């Protein structure tokens, strides 16, 4: 008669080895790739900003190329179209919000142009253009050369990257602060706006610094509003609408302002 050997308990090492194959990664292990992906996005944005405003690369090709590159990187690092604000089911809500903002901004700008005391705010020498040039700027140059890259960068890719490891209010604030800093170089090299120049003329040598700081604060505040539109609608199109309205309608109403001021 044979007797079977008594079962032996598995060794601690064997238990540890088999368990490790089924144990989920620690939270810090999951967040680490997301953190470094966010760092890469920020560094790419710094490079794009320098390429545009220091090296003078043409934004009409740099903007689309940068936007596509950022989206490819975002998808490769695991961000979904919904996280990027580009899911199909969010398009309708985003377009509605965007069109609503365009209407509100148009009414505000019209009032600003028609009131003599505020008309000078629209007298930007960069946009003292004939009607055809203003239309080209508003419907081609600004959307392709400015809005495409900035919206994909700050309210799509960076937004999605930050949202993987930050609370939503921190995503809004963080992306908006970086959006404000993005405008430091443009403010340094910008041509003068009549109203802005008059407002800081008494500051002497500090006038240029005041313009840069004011630009950062103003664009960061605009980033908060755009971010809230993005959050509420779940779609990038809402902030795109606001961005186009504040920039492109400024050019179009600037044409009217220059004519009224003549």
What would you say about this model in short?
The chain has helices at residues 12-20, 27-53, 59-76, 91-114, 116-119, 131-163, 168-182, 184-189, 194-199, 207-233, 236-261. The protein has 262 residues and is mainly alpha-helical.
What is the fold's blueprint, element by element?
Elements: H1 12-20, H2 27-53, H3 59-76, H4 91-114, H5 116-119, H6 131-163, H7 168-182, H8 184-189, H9 194-199, H10 207-233, H11 236-261
Helix pairs in contact: 2-3, 2-6, 3-6, 4-11, 6-7, 6-11, 7-10, 10-11
Description:
With 262 residues, the protein is mainly α. The protein has one domain (30-261). It contains 11 helices and no strands. The chain has helices spanning 12-20, 27-53, 59-76, 91-114, 116-119, 131-163, 168-182, 184-189, 194-199, 207-233, 236-261. It is globular and about 55 Å long.
User: Main sheet?
Assistant: none
Overall morphology: globular
Oligomer: single chain
Counting H and I runs of at least 4 residues, what is the number of helices? Answer: 11
Considering DSSP H and I runs of 4 or more, what fraction of the residues is helical? over 70%
Q: How many strands?
A: 0
**Gap between N and C termini, in Å?**
116 Å
Unreliable segments of 5+ consecutive residues: 12-26
Radius of gyration (Å):
25 Å
Strand content: under 5%
Mean pLDDT: 86
Q: How many structural domains does the protein architecture include? A: 1
Structural class of the secondary structure composition? mainly alpha
H and E string: HHHHHHHHHHH
């Amino acid at each position: 008669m044979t007797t079977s050997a008594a079962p032996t308990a598995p060794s601690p090492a064997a238990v540890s080895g088999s368990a490790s194959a089924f144990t989920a990664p620690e939270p810090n292990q999951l967040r680490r790739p997301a953190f470094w992906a966010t760092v890469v996005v920020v560094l790419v944005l710094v490079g794009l900003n320098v390429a545009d405003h220091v090296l003078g690369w043409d934004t009409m090709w740099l903007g689309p190329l940068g936007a596509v590159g950022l989206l490819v990187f975002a998808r490769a690092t695991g961000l979904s179209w919904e996280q990027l604000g580009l899911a199909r089911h969010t398009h309708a809500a985003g377009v509605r919000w965007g069109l609503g903002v365009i209407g509100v901004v148009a009414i505000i700008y019209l009032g600003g142009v028609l009131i003599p005391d505020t008309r000078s705010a629209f007298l930007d020498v960069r946009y003292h253009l004939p009607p055809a040039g203003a239309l080209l700027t508003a419907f081609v140059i600004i959307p392709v050369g400015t809005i495409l890259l900035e919206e994909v960068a700050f309210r799509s890719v960076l937004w999605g990257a930050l949202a993987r490891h930050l609370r939503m209010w921190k995503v809004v604030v963080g992306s908006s602060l970086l959006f404000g800093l993005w405008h430091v170089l443009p403010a340094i090299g910008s041509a003068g706006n009549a109203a802005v120049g008059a407002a800081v003329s008494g500051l002497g040598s500090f006038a240029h610094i005041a313009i840069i700081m004011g630009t950062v604060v103003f664009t960061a505040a605009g980033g908060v509003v755009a971010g809230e539109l993005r959050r509420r609608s779940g779609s990038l199109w809402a902030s795109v609408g606001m961005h186009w309205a504040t920039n492109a309608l400024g050019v179009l109403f600037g044409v009217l302002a220059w004519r009224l001021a003549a």
